[in-house]
Design goal:
Layout: E1 4-7, E2 10-13, E3 18-24, E4 34-39, E5 46-52, E6 56-59, E7 67-72, E8 77-82, E9 91-97, E10 102-103, E11 107-112
Parallel strand pairs: 2-11
Antiparallel strand pairs: 1-3, 3-8, 4-5, 4-9, 5-6, 7-8, 9-10, 9-11
Length: 113
């Protein structure tokens, strides 16, 4: 069973940046789709971005132009670079192996004004 562990969250001011990482316990089958989601307390999980292979990436309209998803196959890691953060980006961010339907435990991102 693949396990996913996220890290990189934290507290940042509006306009700041964070790089989130998701490391897999087993090799991600390339070029399978990996994704990032986020969840605000009391609301459902929202899809943020996904990547298939190394260049086929897609983004939610709310983060397009500010977030970048990437993967390092050798390190078995998927990244989410979050730039120009806004207060409404505050959430717990999860990565997901879309093919195996496996989730990580999440990492908290808090953006203050």
């Amino acid at each position: 069973q693949v396990q996913l562990v996220e890290s990189g969250g934290g507290l940042v001011h509006s306009g700041g940046s964070l790089r989130l990482s998701c490391v897999g316990s087993a090799r991600f089958l390339y070029p399978q789709t990996m994704a990032w989601y986020r969840q605000v307390l009391g609301k459902g999980r929202e899809w943020v971005a996904s990547i298939t292979g190394s260049v086929a990436d897609n983004y939610a309209d709310s983060v397009k132009g500010r977030f970048i998803i990437s993967r390092d196959v050798a390190k078995n890691t998927v990244y989410l670079q979050t730039n120009n953060l806004k207060e409404e980006d505050t959430a717990v961010y999860f990565c997901k192996d879309e093919e195996k339907d496996v989730w990580g435990q999440g990492t908290q991102v808090t953006v203050s004004s």
